[in-house]
Specification:
523 residues, Rossmann fold, 5-stranded parallel beta sheet, 17 helices, globular
Length: 523
């Protein structure tokens, strides 16, 4: 399925028109760009990068200078007369102008050496704040050591040390807050489709699909995935919301026609010649490229490094449930479940009463699901459907051409009761699963527990979803829930398992709240 340039543009235009969140219009048909146009685009892109970094330089320098003046105000105006050292002398700011200028230049230089200006400005504030804190601390520590060894020790110098200490705090806070504002502003623009960088993924393997998911799920990065190129022998086809734009042989035409600025290469490492050919095409077409190594599929937190007679060996720790972090996760599961059940008890009782009055049948629905390593368990839910819902499922799947292999969801499911439509939309039907959490069969956060009939149709690699206890919420819920394609959901669960940490659990927990309130994909 080698596509011509016009076919590529037609597929891309159709994909953009079908996308509900299309943020910028599809490009009009254009001839293949000549070399000089590529060079012109490269110069313009480099100019944007330089201008952006110079803007950050100037912003950081301004904030540092203002922070130093704020430190002076705190010390000599707000704390006027307070002896923070062995003496106090009220001094004008002019006595510290040279010191402020030296601190500004030195700190900006230290930020650059520490790689602050090589970081993506949006979406990486914690990393930026750590660099700001460490660079400022190192700079002020060196300055204090130099002043202590080589400078005078009279009252003037000793009292100015308090100013330096206050400036250390105000600069960290000031620069950190300014970077947070810049990052938030850029993220705001990115989420509304402005200033996005067109990105293409080369490779249709599991790693390529995973990269597209992670980039699309993180709009603050400033990328827009326009599609991917197929590298397998089978017939190319779209992957969920991501369009296939052809095969690797179409790479040059796709880059030039769609003005791709960033290419991520996810080809297997054994295809060295093909990787180098792809890199050369990216360079000639004027697109930046990044290589995603096969090792990316293994979380660094799960890699076990050993050595035999000096020869390094790399292994993968599979059993995460024996780790200290997992013990903490279990403790948090118990505490959170008990708290939610006790605090919300009046609401849960009202829901149970409404279900009982709305339609005949039990309040709780028990459904056999598969948990950790395939162990079956009864999964509890508030009943949201009529009692004969399971018998009607087979007929509905045939009538609606439902997904026979993965998950079966209908936006307007006729089996739902009146109360059921409300509690499913508000995700209240899953509250009884807190009992499964207390019983140790589930976790608050984890992969989706499959039905036995679904699991029987899984491919071997998909069965890895059972390597961690299932959860009430997870990546699949905060990134679209029922609107997500089954293959995408499986990859999200596998990504969660391979990259699990308490920090990831906290991020998912915080994202679950707006996901539930928005009701996106809840039906």
């Amino acid at each position: 399925m080698d596509l011509s340039k016009s076919q590529v543009e037609t597929r891309f235009t159709a994909a953009q028109a079908a996308s509900s969140d299309a943020a910028w219009p599809a490009p009009a048909a254009q001839p293949v760009l000549p070399i000089y146009s590529v060079e012109s685009r490269l110069r313009r892109r480099q100019a944007r990068v330089v201008l952006g970094r110079l803007t950050l330089f100037a912003a950081d320098a301004l904030v540092i200078a203002l922070s130093f003046y704020a430190a002076y105000y705190i010390r000599y105006v707000a704390l006027n007369g307070v002896n923070l050292t062995s003496g106090f002398i009220n001094q004008p700011f002019s006595n510290f102008e040279t010191l402020a200028l030296l601190a500004t230049v030195t700190l900006v230089g230290t930020f650059a050496l520490k790689g602050l200006y090589r970081q993506r400005t949006a979406g990486a504030w914690f990393r930026q704040f750590w660099i700001i804190t460490s660079a400022t601390t190192i700079t002020f520590a060196v300055f204090s050591a130099y002043e202590y060894v080589f400078q005078r020790t009279d009252i003037f110098i000793r009292d100015s040390r308090s100013l330096v200490t206050i400036a250390w705090v105000t600069i960290i806070v000031g620069v950190g807050l300014s970077r947070l504002l810049i990052s938030s502003f850029l993220s705001y623009l990115y989420r509304r489709g402005m200033l996005l960088t067109p990105l293409l993924v080369v490779g249709s393997n599991r790693l390529g699909k995973l990269m597209m998911q992670q980039i699309a799920a993180t709009p603050s990065l400033g990328y827009r995935v326009v599609g991917y190129l197929h590298d397998q022998d089978d017939e190319p086809q779209d992957f969920g919301r991501f369009s296939v734009l052809g095969r690797i042989s179409d790479l040059d035409a796709v880059i030039r026609s769609l003005h791709i600025e960033q290419v991520i290469i996810t080809l297997p490492s054994h295809q060295h010649d093909l990787i180098m050919s792809t890199v050369n095409i990216c360079e000639r077409a004027g697109a930046d490229f990044r290589l995603a190594p096969d090792l990316y599929e293994m979380s660094m937190s799960r890699i076990d490094v050993d050595a035999i007679e000096g020869i390094p060996l790399i292994g993968l720790r599979r059993n995460l449930t024996s780790s200290l972090q997992f013990s903490i996760k279990r403790a948090l599961d118990i505490a959170g479940s008990l708290l939610a059940l006790v605090v919300g008890l009046p609401i849960w009782l009202l829901i149970a009463l409404a279900i009982k009055l709305d339609s005949p049948g039990p309040v709780l629905h028990r459904q056999t699901r598969l948990g950790y390593r395939g162990h079956p368990f009864p999964c509890f839910k508030f009943r949201s459907m009529y009692v004969n819902a399971d018998q009607l499922r087979a007929r509905l799947e045939v009538a609606t051409d439902g997904d026979q292999r993965g998950k079966f969801k209908l936006r307007d499911d006729p089996r739902r009761t009146r109360v059921g439509r409300f509690i499913r939309g508000a995700s209240l039907d899953e509250i009884p699963q807190l009992l499964n959490v207390l019983r140790g069969e589930m976790s608050l956060i984890g992969p989706r527990p499959p039905l036995p009939v679904e699991f029987a149709k899984y491919e071997d690699w998909e069965k890895a979803r059972l390597e961690m206890p299932p959860g009430i919420t997870g990546l699949w819920q905060v990134r679209g829930r029922s609107d997500i394609d089954f293959d995408e959901m499986v990859l999200m669960d596998l990504y969660y398992i391979e990259n699990w940490s308490l920090r990831l659990d906290i991020q998912i927990a915080l994202q679950t709240i707006p996901a539930v309130l928005s009701r996106k994909g809840a039906y």
